[in-house]
Structure formats: structure tokens, C-alpha cells
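Input record (one chain):
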Amino acid sequence: MSQEHKIPLASFFKQVKSSESGLSSVEAEERINEFGSNQLHVQKKTPEFVKFLHQFKNFFAILLIIGGALAFLAENLDPGQGNLYIAFALLCVVLLNATFTYLQERQSEKILESFNKMLPVMVNVIRENKEQRIDAKKIVPGDVVMLNEGDRVSADCRLIEHTQLKVDMSSLTGESEPQLRHLECTHENILESRNMVFSGTLVQSGHGKAVVYATGMETQIGNIVQLTKETEEIDSPIRTELNIFIKIISTIAIILGVVFFIISVATGKSGIGSLIFAIGIIVANVPEGLLPTVTLALTMASKRMAKKNALIKNLESVETLGSTTVICTDKTGTLTQNRISVNTIIVNQNEYAAWDQQSLNEKGILRACEIMSLCNNAHLTNEGFTGDPTETALLVYVNRINSVNNYADRVRVFEKPFDSATKRMITVHQLPEQELLLASLKGAPEIVLSRCDRILLEDKIVAFDEIRKKQTLTSYQRLARRGERVLALAYRETETHDLIEENFIFVGLVGMLDPHRPEVPEALEKCRKAGVKVIMITGDYGLTAEAIGRQIGLATGQCRIIRGDELKIMEDETLINALQSPEIIFARTTPIQKLRIVKALQSMGEIVTVTGDGVNDAPALKNADMGVAMGLIGTEVAKEASNMILLDDNFATIVDAIEEGRTIFDNIKKFIAYILTSNIPEILPFIAFVLFDLPLPLTVVLILAIDLGTDILPALGLGAESAESDVMNRPPRSRNERLLTRNLLLMSYGIVGMIQAAAGFFTYFVILFNGGWQWGEELAFTDPLYRTAITGFFASIIICQVANVIICRTRRQSLLNMNLFSNHLLLIGIATELVLLGLITYIPVFNLFFGTAPLQAWHFLLSIPFAIFILVGDEIRRTFIRKNNPFVLKWLNW
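The corresponding structure, as predicted from the sequence alone:
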């Protein structure tokens, strides 16, 4: 463990080979060569075109590229058969999908780059025994740096001088309140020792001088960068599902293509004809429009979420929220309002609400206000009070009773600052026109009480006996159980600055509260009903965290509280057992511990959403299945590492987003069922072409017209479908629940797809036989009868797909109970589908491109009974599902 904060200052100077006068320019140049520049090396640069090319290595892209290449080959071997259009269409699909993926991944690269924004550009140092302003990248170990209010610290340093220096460590340690620095070691942990300042933290007030001992990647923030670099990114559940889906569908396509190519050649067909046939089988099996449809559906969902103050950075993360089984949340600002204020005052052993005017009649209230004002480093500016949030809250309260300007004539002559070791602050002031000095004490009640032997009651100083102390402790515990942060106030008169910390006069207690957000309890109840576990992970103290947890309903029974020091010595197996507790809160945790909790949950099979706002949260945010950063108080690093940013820092917004995520998974499943259904009437014509020597009932160009034309908008309409009524009353979907299930394939391929194929073949043969065609007769590609027949097959698929998109709107709910006109995008999709059918059927230019011919009105009527059968049959299926029929639930519940 690092010892820089513990060793004597003389030994520290010897260790860094420096002195208070700093380095010479020659020494600094030598150390730049030895230690390197003061930069965070985030990652090795990869050319953008290489990153783009990586998008073409997935199985789906390779399959379509091969299909396009085969189409080009077929065009060269037998020109004029339309294979050139097929090749271009397939390659355009691959390019479109790759572009979407590349743009999404480009966002994630900003995660590590954003760390460098935490470092200053220029910094003041002492070199050649005089102050100079240099580039922060040139800082080296041994440099003496100057720290002033508003500066961002450039490296890890040890203080050698300071005046009222207060540093905001929240971005690094999660500490909610800036703390005064000290020249001596105050804690075993280097991050909590007040004699140190660290790279990336902010000087809030005061000034000082410090010696650098670590730069660049050797700093504490550098360690977090390294941890973030080593943290593997987790594929979103929807990406995992899509990869599985693509592999299954592509495998089916390849097997069918190869098998029927062999069969085609074996039955005496030409090699080129068999090749074109194999391309047709592959194209018919692969839903080319799926990935663009998924991306567009997720985009629409992310826009809906933005209106609810949830900004989605990675589109796939929308669905991840719906899969969430555990939320690991911060407390301050997320569950609470981050607006600390005085809530309770206890003087003369009487308790008053802060706004209670009756407290003004208490004789000890002015003395309490005097202590709160003097023992305080916040101050009043033209813009209001600034400083530590707790101390600011005290001044706001004082100012309502007695203007803080009334205490401006007191001159501070001594201060013992507050820190986590002593848990108290003491100031000594010279009172106007008095020889005695006034010492004011505020701090943790148990510390203050131990230093008091008298108490102020009704302006009289009496003995602070055990009975009165016990009564005071009871009041303290009562406030603490309400979630209030309690400070005790005391004073004494003294003649010297060398104050002995005893014989103080106890005045009273102040209870402060950061109120919880009013909407959080309802949101937590929603989580409970939805089967989502919520775990609080905070840098705050356990008692405060538990009290807030009980107020909001996070802790309702035997809640387990685990502190950071306990977690540090806890074995992984013990941690996993602890995480199985129904209610659990982690307090005083470190960044590595937060990451450890997330990984432990993931090892248990949980899908974890994590909230965070500081640099220290970046590894956990990145490793989580879903990282959620605070938009109001979050650092840039946290925002870049996250998948979602809460624009209002509100926990309830996460719950709304989970509902949206669950809905989008349902909707993706719905439009996958819709898109896959048309595969069967697209595949069977090619199989019939080989096995029964028929004129090919459907061409590849018309298949692409379905997959990339008529199916896209109705599928998007399904992606915009509203949530079903029970979406937040069921448990999260299992990791084992696939997008592509046996039942979905059975419904899409085995039932609805077969009905569509039957409609297509029925229309096809009726048109052929009505036109005088006889079985076994060959028809030219340009024959008007052939073109009319394939147009009829195409039209039958479209008409049945209209029925199919209607039944896909709901998986359980009856269509009779739905507003069929509520989904405007779906209605537009159906209308567009029918318009495209009309264009392809009747417009000469489209006839030429797609090889179609105009249909007569009665041709369309041939497939209507099949469409009605689809509507009625699925309504019957849903009825049996709602009645929990075992057979239907087992085989037909997709």
C-alpha cells in the first residue's frame, strides 16, 4: 500500500528527490524522459476505416456478401436475368447494417477519451525557485505546484502549505462534501488522508502548495483509467439475442441452399440455374430488413424515453433496461433531492421543526445560531451562500432567524477543521470589545457530548449530568432514525488559542435532511411488482442510508447493511450469499468495491443496471449491463461510460425506462414473428420449382420487394405498439428466454406461414390454369401469363401479411378489446404496403423492373379467405392462452 501520506515530510522530499524550492528546468526535462508526460493513455488508435471494416465480419454480413457475389457471378454467366439487381440490393443491405453498427460503436470510444477532460491545460509551478505557468502535460514527480480556488489538480500531490484549502473529491472518491485539507496524515487510506490532493479533483476554496509524487497513469485517476480499459464491455441482451437469431436463420439458409443446389443439379438442371436457385433460397430465408427495422424501432423507443428525461446513448440499451433484474443505485440526488436543509432544532431539551416560529422564543436559539454561523466555512456572496452543502444549509437556517451579517465583526483566530477521524470542527473567535475568546464546537453528537460537562438550559449553565446526557442521546437517536444527519453544538469561553478540547457547554442538536424524491416510493413499489431488486450502493454512512431506505420503502424488513470495510475482507462466496438477501444496502464503498458488487451479481446470472455520477463510477458503469449516469450532477467521464443519462437524476425515470424496455422486447418479438412468417411463402416456391419442375412461382426480386419494401413499415408499426397492460406485473424475462423460440418458429413457419404459402399457390395455380397453362409446360420469363401468376402469388403474401400484422399486435389480449386504430404508424404501414402492391402491380415502370403484370380485381379475392382464416384462427389461439390451456401454452404461446 502507498505510504506517501504517512512518512515524515523530510523523508517524502527525499523520496521524490525534491525540496520546497521545486525543480530546475534541467531536472524537469530529465524526469519527463524518465516518467513520461502527465497524460492518461486511454487506448491505442485504430484507423476509422479499419473499425468500419470490422462491421463486415459478422455471420449475417458474410452470408449476404456471399449471396451478392453469387448473384454477380450468375449475371456474368447468364446476363439479363435480373441477378444484377439482386446483387446490388444484397450489398446495399450489408452496407446499411454495417453503417448503423459502426455509428453505435463510435459512441462507446468516447468513454476513455473523456478522462483527459478531467485534467487542466495549464498549471502554476515553482521552477528555478520562482513561480511559472507551464503546460500540465509537463508536470513531473518532484514539481511543486500552486493550488488556488477554482483550479483543477494536475497530479497526485502531498500538501506542504495551505490556507483554508478545501478540495472537492466527489468525482474521485464519491465523498459528497468537499473537505478542508490538513498538513498531517489523518487516515490510513491515502484517498481519505487530508494531507493529499489528487489528479482531477477541484479546489473549491482557499489556496496551497503541494509536491507532486505521481503523474499520468501512475495517479489514482490513472488507476481508474487502467481499470476501465481492462473492463470488458458486455454485449447487450438484445445484441446477444440477435446474434443467436442470425446464426440460426443463416444456418437454415445455408443448409437449404446447399441441399437444394445439390438436388437441382442432380435432377438435371443447369449449374447456372441451380446457382440462381441457391441464391433464391438464401435470400428467401434471410430477413434482410430485420436489422434496420430493429435499429429504427429502438430509435423510436429512445425518442419516447427522451421525453421522459432518459437520454439513451446506445440504441440496444433500450431493451437491456427491460431485461434488468437488479438496479444498483446511488442515494444522493437519485433517491434523494440533493437539497440538504435544516429540518429539526433541539434547544433546552425541546424539539422544534426548523420552520416552527415558536422556537424563536427559546432562549438558547440565538446561541445555537451563533455557533452555526461562526463554526462554519461557507459564506455569503452576491449570488447567495456558497461552500460545503451542510455548512451552507446551516447558514440558510441562521439567516432566516438572525442575519449572518450580524456575526461579521467576529474575527477568527484559530480553527481545528472537521475530518472523518475527529468528526468535529472547532473555531475560536475574538469577540468585539471583549478580552475573552469564544470557542465554538460542532460535530458528531457522541464526540461533542464527550467534551461537554455543562449544558445551557433557559440561559442558565447547569451540570450536564448522566440523566441529561441520556435524554440528549435519545433525541439524537430519534432524529437519526428519521434519516436526519445530526450535528451537536457547544461553546466555551477561553483565554488562549491553545484550546484544550474539554469543559464545553452543550447547547443543542441540529437535524438536517436531504429529502427523498416524492415519486421514489411508488417507483420502488413498481420494481417490487416487476420482480426487479433494488440495491443501494452509497459512499454515505450506513445509518443515514438505512434511514432513507426505510423512508422510501427500499428497506421494509430485516435489511442487511454492509460497510466498505466489511466488504473488503469478504470472500466472493460470502458476498454472493449476502447478495441473495431480500433487502441489502452497501455503505462507504470504493470504486473497486462497486465494480466487484456488479460482477458478483452478473456471475449470479443477474442483468444489472448501475447508476453513477463520478469518475470513480466509470468502471462499474462500463461493466454493467446498463450504465446510467446522472445528467445534472454527473461528470463527463460518467456520462461517457454510461448507456443512458438521466436528465433529471431521478430514480423514478429509471423505472419508467424499464417499462419502455420491456415493451420494446415484446415489440421486437412481435415484428420478428411478422417478418419471419413471409419466409415460408418465399422459400416454398423454390422448393416446388426443384421438386415438381414448376415455373418458379416467386422471383428473388419480388422477395426483396417484400423483405425490404412492403414489410418494413408495418414492422416498425409493431415496434411502436403500446405496452400491454401486465408488462410491469410480471417478472423480468429470463436470460434463457430467446427472441427466436420453438413456439415462435412453429407459429410463423409451421402455421401462419403455411397458410400464406397455401394462399399464394392457390392464386398462382388458379391464374395459370385459367390462362390455359398445363402441368409440365415451360413458361418464359417474359410470358405475360407467367408474370401475372407470380404477381398473384406476390399479392397473396401481401394480403395475408396485412392480417398477420394485425394479429401480431398482441400476444394474449383479444383483438376485440383493442383499439384497432390506436397505432397510427401501423395503419400508415398497412396503407404503404397496399400502395406498394398497387405500384408493383399496375405501374409499367415497376412491371418492367420487378417482372410483374397487372391483375384483375377477382385475382385479389382469391387470398381473402386465407387472410380471414389467419385472423379468426389466432383469436381462438389467444382465447385458449388466456384460459391457460396446457397444450396451447406449451406449443402455441410464442
